[in-house]
Amino acid sequence: MYSGGVMEERRDYVTLSLPAVLLPPPAAAAPSRSWRRRWKQLPRLQRVVVVMVAVGLLVGVALLVTTYLSGPSHSSSLSHTPQPSHLSYKLENNLTPPPVMVHLPESHQDKVETVPEEQALKDDPGHDGRDQIVPPPGLPQKRSARQEAVVAAMKHAWKGYKTYAWGHDHLRPVSRTRSDWLRLGLTLVDALDTLWIMDLREEFSEAREWVATQLNFNLNQDVNLFETTIRVLGGLLSTYHLTKEQLFLDKAVDLGERLVSGFNSGSGVPFADVNLYSRRASKPKWGPDSSTSEVTTIQLEFRDLSRVTGNPIFEEKASFVSEHIHKLPKVEGLVPIFINAQTGQWRSHSTITLGARGDSYYEYLLKQWIQTGRTVDYLRMDYNESVSGMEHLLAARTQPSQLLFFGELHGSTKNFVNKMDELTCYLPGTLALGVHYGMPRHHLDLAQDLIYTCVQTWLRQPTHLAAEISYFNTQPNNVDEDFYVKNNDAHYLLRPETIESLWYLYHLTGNTTYQDWGWQMFQGIEQYCKVDNGYTSIGNVRSTTDTKPKDKMESFFLGETLKYLYLLFMEDQTAFSVDKWVFNSEAHPLPIYSH
Ligand code: DMJ
């Protein structure tokens, strides 16, 4: 578990003994007369030279000591920003970056060892994202049995996609055909880094070949800026970082240069859609505004594109949106789910939710702060304020089991509604990640309580699969169920969020219960979503006999769900440490920078 031991370790680092060179030598305070006499006897020129050498030496030593005291460059800027109380040692001596948590072998999983991040970064020459080819972790002989099962699932999904939907966005595994949405080979691009991480070389190389020869962005096609950014741009960038193949960066640049026109609005807040050929941006077909989570969940990718190309424009445009939203009024750090791209103002009366259209705004506050080496302090402050707002305004407990859930505030009256989307189950992972990076310790309690609820929404269904939306019972004298699902909300779309959070919690605590829960959920997927030619989302999680297959395999099933399962069951959790990588909203790992 994330233990108090970590804090004790940190306290040890504070003990600082000054280098001996700074201590005044006792003799220097009272030089003897013979020394004075000999000094006066020296020729004037010799005395000048000796004084100059001495001054030079002193300046050199002073410089060395200053560098030593200000610590490594990746953390020095923290000294300019207020830190949570248990990180205050940084302000005191600036010497020690936070520790990296490393897992011990299974028999010792109740203990957590810490090593200074500085050491970990030294061991990893690629932490700046520029000079590292990352070998796929978990070679076949080193995979756990559960990982093998996930790899078999990936191969099965890939085979169906390759046979019936190659180069198209989505496989329809029941009817053995395909569907298109962005027309960008979405499943293939979303799956690239998963194939690499799983070391599926043959599949990766056929996918690579398609990217090299077929992936074409010069399309007269309106695409959703957010979806294309997190899935396609994110997928290409992470594959570039993992493999260091220029091909993936070239493709990312071509796409980024088209997508960046999405920011051409009256306010700088992007429109929902962009035409890849004409580069014209537009509002969504279904309404006047952009979704808050969409305009705030493109920053990791655009910043990374700037950092690897040296062209600042992508980062500037994307950061401006976060800065703009930072200045807008909020409800205790919580945001409405719609914003107008022309005016840059919230749509009044719109809902506040941690689910659809709100979710990843909160996720990217934290992740951007991490990506930028914890140097952009308004992101940390907005994140912390939002978690306080969640606790105060959205958190509630069920009857009879006191399960924690986060409800929603609807309409102009901001009435509390006791519903929670499966999408909200990304939050325990984000909260745990925040605590790892020094956010208040009680966020981990929230994370643990919420993941328990999320897991219940899966495992209490007969299929062991969660519905898209659950409603929670808060009335003491009511029915005996903690939550219920309405007919229209009973579908499971192969979503990853709960599994994503299980990985973060296992990765950061070492508690194998999270793996066991994930395994049971994976069995649900295997039993009720697996079909002859792939995996299908289903329309009804409440019945084992009438699951109502929807005949669609979402790209995020390969990009996220199977990747997080694979990482969850991996014995060596250092391979994808959250101290080196920040995972975008579509599970594509990007490097952490120093600023
Ligand atoms: C993914 O495309 C991303 O995780 C996104 O942020 C929201 N949800 C889907 C998967 O459920």
From TrEMBL:
Entry-linked InterPro entries: 6hp_glycosidase-like_sf, Glyco_hydro_47, Glycosyl_Hydrolase_47, Seven-hairpin_glycosidases
Keywords attached to this entry: Calcium, Disulfide bond, Endoplasmic reticulum, Glycosidase, Hydrolase, Membrane, Metal-binding, Signal-anchor, Transmembrane, Transmembrane helix
Residue sites binding Ca(2+) per the record: 585
Transmembrane segments: 45-69
Active site, per annotation: 227, 359, 468, 497
Compositional bias per record (Basic and acidic residues), positions renumbered to this chain: 110-131
Compartments it resides in: Endoplasmic reticulum membrane
Pathway per the UniProt entry: Protein modification; protein glycosylation
Any one biological process term the GO annotation gives: proteasomal protein catabolic process
Chief localisation class: endoplasmic reticulum
Broadest EC class assigned to this enzyme: hydrolase
Similarity comment: Belongs to the glycosyl hydrolase 47 family.
Protein purpose: Involved in glycoprotein quality control targeting of misfolded glycoproteins for degradation. It primarily trims a single alpha-1,2-linked mannose residue from Man(9)GlcNAc(2) to produce Man(8)GlcNAc(2), but at high enzyme concentrations, as found in the ER quality control compartment (ERQC), it further trims the carbohydrates to Man(5-6)GlcNAc(2).
Protein name: alpha-1,2-Mannosidase
